[in-house]
Design goal:
This protein is mainly beta and 129 residues long. Helices cover 8% and strands 50% of the residues.
Length: 129
């Protein structure tokens, strides 16, 4: 089955950097999109970045654009999120998720939300001020 495992979280001072990893298995990497999400206490989960395993196209939320960089290594079935210039508001549980690209295309065609249906356990990122 599809599995995703995040790592790399920790405590960092404002302005610092962290690199998160999402190691996946159980699917053909090039046929899926992988996304990063975060959730702060008392707040809704926020999609912050995603990458296509097929063509490598990327997406960034405005809140992280210019500071975070997503990348992938298909040979390792791994997606990375390099986070720089971290702010206290970046604090939260960071999770990766996967969805078949075919489902992304279907969601686009039907004007529905992308069904991110495979999730990792999450890793805590704390940015101290």
């Amino acid at each position: 089955e599809v599995q995703l495992v995040e790592s790399g979280g920790g405590v960092v001072q404002a302005g610092g950097s962290l690199r998160l990893s999402c190691v996946s298995s159980g699917f053909t990497f090039k046929d899926y999109a992988i996304g990063w999400f975060r959730q702060a206490p008392g707040k809704a989960r926020e999609g912050i970045s995603s990458i296509s395993g097929g063509d490598g196209s990327t997406f960034y939320a405005d809140s992280v654009m210019g500071r975070f960089t997503i990348s992938s290594d298909g040979a390792k079935n791994t997606v990375y999120l390099q986070m720089s210039s971290l702010k206290p508001e970046d604090t939260g549980v960071y999770s990766c998720a996967a969805v078949p690209e075919a489902n992304v295309r279907f969601a686009k065609q039907t004007r529905t939300r992308v069904p991110w249906d495979h999730w990792g356990q999450g890793t805590q990122v704390t940015v101290a001020s």
